[in-house]
Write a structure and sequence with these properties.
355 residues, alpha/beta, Rossmann fold, 2 domains, 6-stranded mixed beta sheet, 4-stranded antiparallel beta sheet, disordered C terminus
Length: 355
């Protein structure tokens, strides 16, 4: 059974007078891996906490299994939270407990399983994340990467349908991040759960997800198939993916238009987007991700609505496995391009936002 679909409509969150983001609308497809990008301070972690019901939005809905988490009873919300597994930035392990007891904790709190069954489940999840043999170690005795994996094993013990990752690469070097990215893909192949990853790591965004979203200017500027954002020539996307100073993103917030244009003029011609990298596949010996076939069917149905560059990238990725008889149709003609445009795609200053 695939992970559950998560449908978010018109979600808005503020702390007092400070608006964090407004009118966030997206659907996490069941069983697929999605990534949420954005400059620091744009409220990505706040979005995860709102999604799981730890924070209450001012407006909007979050629908899972035909239930709106924003408006349901506390008892129903408590039950729905069991559908989620969460990997926090630091693993959020109890320092006084060894890894076995940390991972067993949700089972002891939320089930009536015998200790023998708990032991079997903990052993299974520790093997999945490569921690077999480390059961007696304390969090302070292991590396940051091992703490992440232990936190991930704990997030898996209740067999969640939705797994949230809050900056899983935080504090890890590029090599450990690469190992963790492969582990995420491997776990998705084994569980078919719905994954949402908040990250700043560009390599993660380029190689892991089926879908990518980007929070910018207090709105969800874009969400869709990974190829849409990774081939977008919007200045904010190019700046973020290239990790450069020139562009609309400033140190603490977005720059004004005049400053951004002046910097770009002074810099002259800048390199475009990084090359599109292939998506990671499960490790040898693991099953294929079931989400891949579902995603292909979904993406092909919306192909005619996507920008030219995204269409080309999608066609190229499927070139060697295109189904017999699948040919470009009249809807694929460049003259019929239908970019995805939100009704609120013009900000208060009259500029078009990403859509």
């Amino acid at each position: 059974m695939p992970g559950v679909e998560v449908k978010v409509e018109g979600l808005s969150k503020s702390f007092g007078r400070a608006n964090i983001w407004s009118d966030v609308t997206l659907t996490l497809p069941p069983g697929e891996v999605s990534v949420l990008l954005g400059p620091s301070g744009t409220g990505k972690s706040v979005f995860l906490k709102t999604l799981i019901g730890l924070l209450k939005p001012e407006r909007g809905s979050i629908v899972i299994h035909d239930t709106d988490l924003v408006r349901c009873s506390e008892s129903r919300l408590y039950e729905l939270r069991k559908l989620f597994g969460v990997l926090f930035q630091d693993g959020a392990l109890f320092g006084s407990m060894n890894l076995y007891d940390n991972i067993a904790f949700p089972l002891r709190e939320h089930t009536k399983f015998s200790e023998a069954k708990i032991a079997d489940i903990v052993a299974e999840k520790m093997e999945m994340v490569g921690l077999t043999g480390d059961e007696k170690k304390l969090p302070g005795e292991i590396s940051g990467g091992m703490r992440k994996r232990a936190g991930l094993a704990r997030a898996l013990v209740l067999d969640p349908e939705i797994i949230l990752f809050d900056e899983p690469d935080s504090g890890l070097d590029p090599v450990r991040t690469a190992y963790l990215n492969q582990l995420i893909i491997d776990l998705n192949a084994q569980t078919d759960a719905t994954f949402l990853i908040v990250t700043h790591d560009i390599n993660t965004a380029q190689t892991v997800p089926d879908n990518i979203g980007m929070l910018y200017r207090k709105h969800l500027a874009m969400f869709g198939p990974r190829e849409v954002l990774l081939t977008s020539e919007e200045p904010v996307v190019a700046q973020f993916l290239n990790g450069r100073r020139q562009g609309p993103i400033g140190m603490s917030e977005e720059k004004d238009t005049a400053q951004a244009e002046r910097e770009l003029a002074e810099a002259g011609e800048l390199a475009g987007l990084p090359p599109l990298k292939p998506q990671l596949e499960p490790s040898a010996g693991l099953p294929e991700r079931r989400a891949v076939a579902r995603r292909r069917e979904r993406v092909e149905s919306m192909l005619h609505t996507l920008p030219h560059a995204a269409r080309d990238a999608i066609r190229e990725s499927y070139a060697d496995e295109a189904p017999t008889g699948w040919m470009p149709t009249v809807d694929d003609d460049p003259t019929t391009q239908l970019p995805v445009v939100r009704e609120d795609s013009v900000d208060p200053e009259g500029r078009h936002r990403l859509s």
